[in-house]
Amino acid sequence: VVDHIDHTAPTCELEAVGTLGNNNYYTSDVTIRFKKAEDNESGVSHTLIDNPTITTDTNGTTVTGTVVDRAGNTGSCNISIKLDKTKPTCIYSGTSTEWTSEDRIVTLTCDDSESGCTSQNPISKTYDINTEATNWDDTIITDKAGNETHCHQIIDIYVDKCTQTESIYGNYGNCSASCGGGTKVREVTVKSTFGSDFICEIFNESTACNTDSCHHGGDGDDDNHGASCGADGTPNCEGICGYPGAGSPCCVGDC
Questions:
Q1: How many angstroms separate the CA atoms of 51 and 212, rounded?
Q2: Average pLDDT over residues 92-106
Q3: What is the pLDDT of residue 251?
Q4: How far apart, in whole angstroms, are the C-alpha atoms of residue 176 and residue 45?
């Protein structure tokens, strides 16, 4: 004699235990357990959860719970879990350890391979003064699960604007004239002392040389302004300094 017939499958409901972040993502390990396992006829015999603990990041894993009643009927229930425990990564683009005299633009962006970054715009900074390496001011980036990362590391800039320099002077060349005033030239090299060893500028620098007046003809001395001596030893100043002949003011002194 059969006292009772049970053809009805038991019912169940699963729940997740963990830290729930944003957008239905958990941000910690998740334990799955039965929230409800019922059978109103023969009663529950035993239960089983196929994946009771989730510890690996996932954009969607389905966990199944099974309930068997005393009559052998089986019921099941599911729950979908999204898990992102990994903080987003700070990505800096535009950095370099190669020196430049140009402005350098560095951009900070967010990278996250699980839930993805929130829709925050990239942050760019322009470095237009002498800078080798500098600390990026603290900036917070977030992913869609709610994980946060503080970006504040040392970044390489290597910009040299040639504002700290020293001058290296070459030797002067020959004077352009032997008397009466000439010029001589030397090369000047302006070199950065900030760190790049850039040659910032090269130019020529000139100065006066051989400024003494020149002697014009004859074998006379300076007092005779180049006048030649006649046969009698008297200076012959004709045509010299515009005076007509010997004894003119141009001719003073003996030959």
A1: 104
A2: 97
A3: 47
A4: 115
